[in-house]
């Protein structure tokens, strides 16, 4: 009896012991993720890896009301902190090097694909990796200036962690050479512009970076921001060369339908850029694919129905020439400031296509009826939506057709790169090199002027404008910079231009953004200056912007990082 | 549970005759109670006993031929320390040794001649009205007395009315009664739940409480019964000192989960949550029906939980469900609870005119134009005064779905419009239990229905619970048991803002201004929030938690028990959301959509399967007072989760939401993971005469979460105890100190509560890039994170010292524990490395922290005359944690550093507001260029005439100092009750005695005016408007130069005044009346006629009172739960509110 019990008992113990003896019971590897050694085996792996960089981080779009807040082109309701000089040193936090590590990881691993594939199978993705490596470092260069150039995946004990910063021209060279490589590998197809990046975009960015670095080195020379052993000419030459390659490729052209009074405006309000000759890269929005994802909508039109506190400055308005090609200070055609309708008369047509003229269409309803911007101007400042500190309502980027005004999930596409910038980079680089000819102008600036119906810029015929922003620079540089400001207004270039030109002394410090004549609006809660122009920051900035030219061109390095790396130095002026 | 059993008898004979009766009888594997009953029947003698004194699992075999009753009884009972005596024609069995070891004195018969002829009669009953036989009645101060008969009746002669009678009975609380002028005395004895014979559930077994050496607290099921709380967390909160239960990010939402810890934070990276086991198996506590719980053991120290090894580094909560009893007749219990809940601390808006005035001032301070124009101010004023009839300007109607908050002129208290005043919940439970010697069963079914607080688009939580516990003895050495548990939980919420989730709802209701119109002039609803609640689609979740245990016990040799069990838990979850367009009619007659562009449907299924196999074998023996119980066991567990989530867009109709009925894009993703552990464990219990106690246990444990080389860990523990009060010399102290035990334990455990696969480098691949490339959203991959391949266990070592003591006839009880817990090899980032690393540094086992604290439980329980009994219990727990080692070479104060106390808040010392321009003050320009009257002045603590925070390191922290600590300290609970006849009243308080709270910079309800108007709000019962205004202020708010808040600015400038500082450090200590209850038990006589054994009705209130020093608008619990620093989401200060509940319930036993 007892023995029988023991037998049963032992049998059970044995069974249990057997089940527990599975040697691999504790080996539990991931079931829904691949481990690193299994990746980078096929071109598809490479493609998926570089896909991560297609994001708003690397491709800021043309936003509602534009992107020139924080410059002298545009203001929001409160003064910009950088311009105001009130930014404070970052005490904690870090500097985003995650993408540097991420792209280096690609370069350390992509060669695994060579086991089974040839270069042509994956060169596009390799080219994209170079392209994004450039964008990653360009963003760091703009924000911090000189920064460590890291080209390998660091570990926790890598000595490179304690590297000092590399000089800014080293950073710039790293970017430019990355783009040289990108241009070699990337497709030369124009593509429909909303696909993968191509060679011409790489060259556009190369001209942009080279122009940025060249002018920074030139205009910040002999300041704490200057590059030791800088060589601006080298970069200007590179900028011109890269731009010229795009221009000579013939792939792109300026968008024009022969309607100077609307082509420029229309360009930003089209619903499709697939076959647009000018738009090199754009972002598509499609609700079927995005399903209302909040990070992923472009409801520009409905947001631009009202100014909502975002308006253009008088400084930008005054930059537009008159139709005779002369500045308003010189041209007899200028009609004065008394009201906006007059102010835009006889002016560069891009003016009236950037701001909203009262007589133009504001809204076209589904039933065919419409309203003009006059109705909006009549209600200016009546509510928060109509808040307009400087009066000039923005319409660049706006489509009055109400069909396209859809809260939260409008599908208007957004321009990211356009060919006009290539032309402007080219002209400026050539001008800075001092080798510019009328022919250079004719293949660049003239194309933009032609679309707008403006007379060409004639190098030898520039009339002195006593109000030039940069009286110390040549008339041609002044006019090319004006052209850039006007053509690219609100597209997010202006602050970088001011920074690389070291132009805060001329454009920002001690200045206050002004608006149009206050007398033309019914309700005005804003201050007005002695000449009757809107002066919205009169109280906030009694002495104008207090931008610190020995500090504010760059961001501070977070203090905690200085502590972590003894070799790391702070940016000028921050303490 | 005690049951009184009395055998049948025929005639009255003398005691001696009775015991000398000769009987022949045989027993075959009977239990002792069975044997006694058979004997009683055979001998025709009443034998009365309390079943509690006889071992239930006893097995009696034997043949008696013509033996005297005395001989048979002696043989049967002697092994069990039970004796017998004859009283009034019956044999009464008695435990020789009282619970506390004292030998009972037998009352000597009263000498009739000594006494005057005063005779008292009476009856002693239990709390249900049944007569208690065998109760000893002693005349106090003498050795004289008697024992009640089989009906509980007695009759005794006394000398005078001052005579004090002492009624005592094993398992019941003794009572003293003065006779006075009464002739008839009726006594109700209450069961003594704390009797030290109490058996406590511990890891893989049970143990007599008297023999415990670890720190184990038991919460009995009765303490949890009859509350309107619908989940275990709400019930147990505060029930055991240092068992801390805090609200999660969903706040008081129906069905929301809470987070638990025992003895505070134990690990800075992984979880510090205790292991929650239901009948020995891990289970989601949210799915446990409180009504089915028999008891909860809280194992706090290492020795108690060491047997669980790596699974339970921070304590164990053992929940035991109810089982059927042997020899219990079928009992049916029904209980219900009907409750009305009203939300607490819903922030109410101030009137729109004052609101607008303050906003405009904050804009003006920043040099900006008014938020609300003059024209709008006139409308707002007119609407309040009744002169402007519309909620917005009909000339310029609202033409944008969210513009109403800016351009309207209504005056709504939105939070109170959108949150209900009261909601009605109910729960019902039906239990059936019973059993005989062979088979016992317990069946339970429960239902909870808890609607939420949204005033539109109802939200709700429902739960169904089913449980069966079944056990059966096949023969004398083999028994089987099984348990089936099933819970279905259902939540149903409005989606709220379809694009961002319902968390945003509470942010919006407190920020969308009172001006926002509710209705259009034509009567349709314009409020986007109302519309979102009404028709944004639903978020429905259904969780099915199915659980099965099959177990067997083999006892081939008496004392050698082997248990096998197989447990399987399958949690199936289904979530469906159907966001779609939400059309709002605008003031201009157009329709705006605040929902999704097109209907989409998302369906998520997951299956979470858990397998647990364990086997333990133990041998128990007592030899000459030496008790041994060695036990060894094996256990392995495996969890496998798989989930799939599909989304489809463009539904043909919202009436039929499914993947099939969608025309648009479809995407699918999945998640799969698994982990496993294996362990061998053992324990040795030893004691000598229950006086000297020793316990050793250990576990060798392996986890799949660590690399092969460092996968296994060994975790031993030892503990010892000394029952001093069992020593002979104790007799002298015994009248005052009845029991005293000291105990100590030391042991270590592992912590495997880290993420899976941390040691493996994986490439994260994600579906659907947020970018369209060539008309599609492709998948994308990212770089793997840095990994640490030498990851291993965190080791948690605990030293625990405790005392258990009972005073004054065990009416006063004290339990005190002191502990020191050290977490070594704790996971922490190796080091904060320079940014060029470009990745989060991997975790490695190199940090160390210590937590120490204590628990104190003090209780008093007494029965007074006249059926009045009362009890009061105070619990106090405390823990504080300190980092001992952490790699932070520079001593950066924003992360951990050696010596950092958990909860430290670094900040400036505030020096009040600047009173006049040009006032003498240190240079504060680091925080803003301009400073003027009404701005904050900080103290220059390091006297360098510059206010700054240095390098934010320990060596250089400028003018910062530690201004407070936000760790919860001194967790208090206080409970008490009074029972008189059928009436019972009880209350329960819980609180935290010391804690600081520093409001987040985004805490709208604290600051009111934040750095921009869009995320500000102004509320009643708050300090929001107490901000600085100049002496010549002319707006309706008037001057306020002696303000609490500095001058507000609707720009980032406002932050210069809001650096973390002493001025806004709040005291978050609180005490809350969690429960107050009044019940009435209907007397047995009335009920018995109706066939009901027991009936109780009660009224109960939850969260009735709050004592708190926080500003009135804050609830101390939601304040922390909503704060992003503590895992809150988005909006500090406000989440789903908790409720005050009034309820009514009934318990019936048939």
Walk me through this protein's architecture.
The complex is a heterodimer of chains A (575) and B (1150). By secondary structure, chain A is mainly α. Chain A has helices spanning 2-20, 43-51, 81-84, 98-109, 119-144, 168-185, 199-219, 232-249, 263-267, 287-290, 300-303, 314-319, 340-343, 349-354, 373-378, 419-433, 438-442, 445-452, 475-487, 494-500, 504-507, 559-564; strands at 34-35, 74-75, 279-283, 311-312, 361-364, 370-372, 414-418. A two-stranded antiparallel sheet of chain A has the order 2-4. A two-stranded antiparallel sheet of chain A has the order 3-7. A two-stranded antiparallel sheet of chain A has the order 5-6. Chain B has a 22-stranded antiparallel beta barrel. Chain B starts with a strand and ends with a strand. The model of chain B is unreliable at 1-12 and 97-106 (pLDDT under 50). At the A-B interface, α1, β1, α2, α4 and α10 of A face α8, β28, β32, β34 and β35 of B.
Annotate the secondary structure layout.
The complex is a heterodimer of chains A (575) and B (1150).
Chain A lengths: L1 H19 L13 E2 L7 H9 L22 E2 L5 H4 L13 H12 L9 H26 L23 H18 L13 H21 L12 H18 L13 H5 L11 E5 L3 H4 L9 H4 L7 E2 L1 H6 L20 H4 L5 H6 L6 E4 L5 E3 H6 L35 E5 H15 L4 H5 L2 H8 L22 H13 L6 H7 L3 H4 L51 H6 L11
Antiparallel strand pairs in A: 2-4, 3-7, 5-6
Helix pairs in contact in A: 2-5, 4-5, 5-6, 5-7, 6-7, 7-8, 7-16, 7-20, 8-16, 16-19
Chain B lengths: L3 E3 L8 H6 L1 E9 L1 H12 L2 E5 L9 E9 H9 L4 E6 L2 E6 L22 E8 L10 E4 L5 E3 L5 E6 L5 E5 L6 E4 L5 E5 L10 E4 L2 E4 L7 E5 H4 L7 H5 L6 E5 L10 E5 L12 E4 L2 E2 L10 E7 L2 H4 L10 E6 L6 E16 L8 H14 L8 H12 L18 H4 L6 H5 L4 E13 L3 E13 L8 E16 L2 E17 L8 H9 L16 H8 L2 E20 L2 E18 L5 E3 L5 E3 L6 E20 L1 E3 L2 E24 L16 E23 L3 E12 L8 E12 L13 E15 L10 E2 L1 E2 L13 E2 L12 E14 L4 E18 L13 E22 L3 E18 L18 E4 L2 E4 L22 E3 L22 E5 L3 E12 L2 E12 L1 E2 L6 H4 L58 E2 L2 E12 L2 H7 L3 E15 L7 H7 L16 E11 L1
Parallel strand pairs in B: 3-6, 7-13, 19-22
Antiparallel strand pairs in B: 1-3, 2-4, 5-6, 7-10, 8-9, 8-11, 11-12, 14-15, 16-21, 17-18, 19-20, 21-22, 23-24, 23-56, 24-25, 25-26, 26-27, 27-28, 28-29, 29-32, 30-31, 32-34, 33-34, 34-35, 35-36, 36-37, 37-38, 38-42, 40-41, 42-43, 43-44, 44-45, 45-50, 46-49, 47-48, 50-51, 51-54, 52-53, 54-55, 55-56
């Amino acid at each position: 009896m007892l023995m029988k019990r023991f037998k049963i008992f032992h049998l059970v113990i044995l069974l249990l012991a057997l089940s527990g003896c599975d040697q691999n019971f504790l080996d539990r590897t991931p079931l829904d993720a691949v481990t690193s050694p299994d990746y980078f085996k096929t071109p598809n792996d490479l493609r998926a890896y570089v896909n991560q960089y297609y994001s708003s981080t690397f491709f800021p779009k043309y936003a509602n009301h534009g992107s020139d807040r924080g410059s002298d082109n545009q203001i929001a309701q409160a003064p910009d902190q950088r311009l105001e000089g009130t930014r404070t040193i970052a005490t904690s936090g870090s500097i985003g090097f995650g993408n540097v590590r991420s792209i280096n990881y690609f370069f350390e691993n992509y060669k695994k694909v060579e086991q089974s594939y040839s270069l042509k199978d994956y060169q596009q993705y390799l080219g994209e990796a170079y392209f994004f490596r450039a964008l990653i470092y360009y963003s760091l260069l703009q924000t911090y200036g000189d920064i460590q150039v890291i080209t390998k995946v660091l570990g926790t004990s890598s000595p490179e962690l304690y590297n000092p910063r590399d000089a800014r021209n080293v950073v710039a060279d790293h970017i430019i050479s990355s783009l040289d490589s990108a241009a070699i590998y990337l497709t030369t197809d124009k593509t429909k512009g909303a696909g993968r990046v191509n060679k011409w975009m790489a060259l556009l960015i190369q001209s942009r970076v080279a122009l940025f670095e060249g002018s920074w080195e030139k205009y910040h020379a002999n300041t704490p921001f200057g590059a030791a052993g800088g060589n601006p000419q080298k970069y200007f030459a590179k900028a011109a060369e890269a731009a010229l390659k795009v221009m000579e490729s013939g792939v792109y052209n300026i968008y024009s339908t022969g309607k100077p009074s609307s082509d420029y405006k229309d360009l930003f309000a089209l619903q499709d850029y697939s076959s647009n000759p000018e738009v090199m890269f754009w972002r598509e929005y499609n609700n079927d694919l995005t399903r209302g994802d909040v990070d992923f909508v472009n409801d520009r039109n409905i947001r631009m129905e009202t100014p909502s506190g975002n308006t253009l400055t008088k400084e930008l308005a005054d930059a537009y020439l008159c139709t005779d090609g002369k500045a308003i200070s010189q041209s007899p055609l200028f009609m004065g400031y008394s009201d906006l309708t007059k102010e835009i008369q006889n002016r560069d047509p891009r003016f009236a296509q950037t701001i909203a003229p009262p007589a133009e269409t504001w809204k076209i309803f589904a039933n065919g009826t419409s309203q003009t911007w006059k109705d909006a101007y009549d209600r200016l400042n009546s509510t928060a939506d109509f808040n307009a500190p400087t009066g000039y309502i923005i319409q660049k980027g706006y489509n009055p057709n109400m069909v396209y005004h859809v809260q939260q999930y409008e599908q208007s596409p957004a321009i990211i790169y356009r060919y006009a910038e290539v032309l402007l980079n080219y002209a400026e680089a050539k001008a800075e090199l001092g080798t510019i000819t009328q022919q250079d102008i004719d293949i660049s600036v003239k194309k933009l002027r032609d679309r707008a119906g403006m007379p060409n810029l004639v190098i030898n015929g520039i009339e002195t404008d006593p109000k030039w922003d940069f009286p110390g620079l040549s008339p041609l540089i002044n006019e090319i910079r004006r052209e850039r400001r006007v053509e690219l207004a609100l597209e997010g270039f202006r602050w970088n231009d001011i920074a690389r030109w070291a132009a805060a002394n001329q454009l920002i410090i001690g200045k206050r953004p002004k608006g149009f004549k206050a007398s033309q609006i019914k309700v005005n809660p804003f201050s007005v200056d002695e000449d009757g122009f809107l002066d919205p920051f009169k109280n906030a900035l009694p002495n104008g912007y207090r931008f610190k030219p020995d500090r504010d061109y760059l961001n501070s390095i977070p203090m905690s990082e200085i502590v972590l790396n003894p070799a790391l130095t702070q940016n000028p002026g921050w303490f | 549970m005690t049951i009184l059993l009395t055998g049948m008898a025929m005639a009255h004979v003398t005691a001696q005759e009775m015991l000398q009766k000769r009987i022949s009888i045989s027993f075959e594997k009977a239990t002792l109670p069975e044997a006694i009953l058979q004997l009683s029947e055979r001998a025709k003698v009443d034998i009365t006993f309390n079943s509690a004194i006889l071992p239930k699992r006893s097995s009696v075999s034997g043949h008696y031929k013509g033996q005297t009753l005395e001989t048979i009884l002696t043989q049967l009972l002697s092994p069990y320390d039970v004796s017998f005596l004859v009283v009034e024609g019956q044999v009464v069995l008695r435990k020789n040794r009282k619970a506390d070891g004292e030998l009972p004195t037998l009352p000597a018969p009263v000498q009739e001649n000594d006494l005057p002829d005063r005779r008292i009669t009476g009856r002693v009953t239990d709390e249900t009205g049944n007569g208690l036989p065998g109760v000893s009645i002693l005349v106090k101060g003498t050795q004289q007395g008697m024992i009640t008969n089989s009906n509980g009746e007695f009759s005794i002669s006394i000398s005078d009315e001052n005579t004090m009678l002492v009624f005592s009975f094993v398992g019941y609380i003794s009572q003293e009664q003065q006779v006075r002028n009464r002739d008839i005395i009726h006594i109700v004895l209450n069961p003594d739940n704390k009797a030290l014979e109490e058996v406590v559930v511990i890891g893989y077994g049970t143990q007599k409480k008297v023999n415990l050496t670890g720190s184990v607290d038991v919460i009995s099921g009765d303490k949890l019964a009859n509350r309107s709380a619908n989940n275990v967390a709400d019930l147990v909160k505060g029930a055991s000192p240092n068992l801390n239960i805090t609200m999660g990010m969903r706040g008081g939402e129906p069905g929301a989960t809470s987070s638990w810890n025992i003895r505070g934070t134990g690990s800075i990276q992984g979880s510090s949550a205790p292991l929650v086991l239901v009948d020995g198996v891990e289970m989601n506590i949210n799915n446990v029906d409180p009504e089915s719980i028999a008891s909860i053991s809280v194992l706090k120290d290492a020795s108690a939980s060491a047997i669980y090894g790596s699974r339970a580094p921070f304590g164990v909560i053992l929940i035991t469900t109810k089982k059927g009893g042997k020899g219990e007749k079928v009992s049916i219990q029904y209980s219900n609870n009907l409750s009305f809940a009203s939300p607490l601390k819903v922030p109410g808006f101030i009137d729109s005119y004052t609101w607008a005035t303050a906003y405009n001032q904050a804009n003006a301070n920043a040099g900006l134009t008014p938020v609300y124009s003059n024209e709008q101010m006139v409308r707002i004023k007119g609407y309040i005064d009744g002169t402007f009839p519309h909620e917005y300007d009909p000339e310029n109607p609202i033409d944008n779905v969210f513009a109403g908050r800016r351009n309207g002129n209504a005056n709504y208290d939105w939070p109170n419009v959108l949150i209900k005043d009261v909601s009605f919940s109910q729960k019902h439970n039906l239990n059936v239990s019973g059993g005989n010697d062979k088979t016992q069963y317990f069946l339970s079914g429960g239902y909870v229905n808890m609607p939420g607080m949204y005033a539109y688009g109802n939200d709700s939580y429902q739960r169904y619970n089913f449980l069966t516990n079944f056990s059966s003895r096949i023969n004398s050495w083999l028994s089987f048991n099984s348990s089936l548990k099933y819970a279905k939980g259902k939540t149903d919420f409005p989606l709220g803002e379809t694009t961002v989730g319902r968390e945003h709802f509470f942010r919006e209701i407190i920020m969308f201004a009172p001006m926002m119109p509710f209705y259009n002039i034509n009567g349709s609803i314009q409020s986007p929030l109302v519309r979102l609640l009404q028709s944004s689609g639903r978020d429905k979740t259904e969780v099915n938690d199915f659980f099965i245990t099959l177990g067997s016990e083999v006892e081939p040799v008496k004392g050698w028990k082997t248990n096998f069990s197989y447990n399987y838990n399958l949690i199936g979850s289904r979530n469906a959301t159907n966001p779609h367009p939400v059309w709002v009619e605008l003031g201009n007659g157009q329709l705006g959509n605040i929902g999704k562009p097109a209907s989409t449907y998302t369906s998520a299924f997951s299956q979470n399967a858990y397998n647990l196999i364990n086997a333990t074998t133990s041998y128990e023996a007592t030899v000459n007072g030496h008790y041994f119980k060695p036990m060894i066991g094996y256990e392995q567990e495996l969890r496998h989760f798989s989930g799939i989530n599909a989304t489809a867009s463009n539904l043909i109709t919202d009436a039929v939401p499914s993947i099939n009925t969608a025309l648009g894009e479809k995407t699918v993703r999945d998640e799969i993971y698994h982990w496993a552990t294996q362990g061998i464990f053992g324990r040795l219990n030893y004691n000598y005469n229950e006086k000297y106690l020793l316990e050793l246990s250990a576990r060798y444990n392996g986890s799949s979460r660590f690399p092969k080389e460092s996968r296994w860990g060994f975790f031993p523990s030892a503990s010892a105890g000394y029952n001093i009060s069992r020593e002979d010399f104790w007799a002298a102290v015994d009248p005052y100190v009845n029991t005293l035990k000291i105990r100590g334990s030391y042991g270590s455990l592992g912590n495997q509560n880290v993420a899976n696969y941390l040691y493996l480098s994986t490439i994260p691949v994600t579906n659907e890039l947020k970018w369209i490339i060539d008309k599609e959203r492709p998948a994308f991959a990212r770089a793997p994170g840095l990994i640490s391949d030498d990851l291993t266990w965190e080791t948690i070592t605990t030293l625990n010292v405790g005392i258990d003591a009972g005073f004054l006839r065990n009416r006063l009880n004290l339990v005190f524990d002191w502990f020191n817990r050290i977490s070594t090899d704790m996971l922490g980032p190796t080091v904060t490395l320079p940014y060029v690393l470009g990745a989060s540094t991997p975790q490695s086992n190199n940090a160390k922290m210590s937590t120490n604290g204590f628990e104190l439980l003090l209780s008093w329980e007494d029965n007074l005359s006249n059926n009045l009994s009362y009890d009061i219990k105070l619990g106090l727990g405390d823990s504080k944690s300190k980092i001992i080692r952490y790699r932070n070479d520079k001593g950066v104060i924003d992360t951990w550093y050696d010596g950092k106390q958990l909860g430290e808040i670094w900040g400036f010392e505030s020096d009040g507001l600047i009173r006049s321009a040009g006032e003498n003050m240190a240079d504060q320009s680091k925080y803003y260029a301009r400073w003027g009257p009404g701005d904050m002045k900080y103290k220059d603590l390091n006297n360098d005439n510059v206010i700054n925070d240095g390098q934010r390191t320990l060596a250089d922290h400028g003018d910062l100092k530690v201004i407070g600590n936000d760790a919860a300290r001194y967790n208090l609970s206080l409970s008490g009750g009074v029972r008189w006849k059928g009436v019972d009243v009880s209350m329960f308080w819980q609180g935290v005695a010391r804690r600081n709270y520093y409001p987040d910079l985004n805490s709208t309800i604290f600051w009111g005016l934040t750095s921009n108007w869009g995320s500000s709000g102004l509320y009643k019962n708050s300090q929001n408007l107490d901000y600085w205004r100049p002496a010549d202020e002319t707006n309706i708010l008037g001057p306020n130069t002696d303000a609490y808040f500095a001058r507000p600015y609707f720009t980032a400038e406002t932050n210069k005044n809001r650096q973390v500082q002493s001025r806004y450090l709040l005291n978050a200590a609180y005490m809350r009346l969690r429960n107050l209850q009044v019940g009435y038990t209907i007397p047995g006589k009335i009920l018995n006629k109706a066939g009901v054994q027991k009936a109780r009705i009660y009224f109960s209130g939850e969260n009735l009172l709050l004592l708190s020093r926080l500003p009135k608008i804050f609830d101390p619990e939601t304040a922390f739960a909503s704060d992003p620093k503590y895992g809150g989401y988005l909006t500090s200060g406000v989440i789903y509110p908790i409720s005050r509940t009034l309820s009514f319930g009934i318990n019936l036993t048939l």
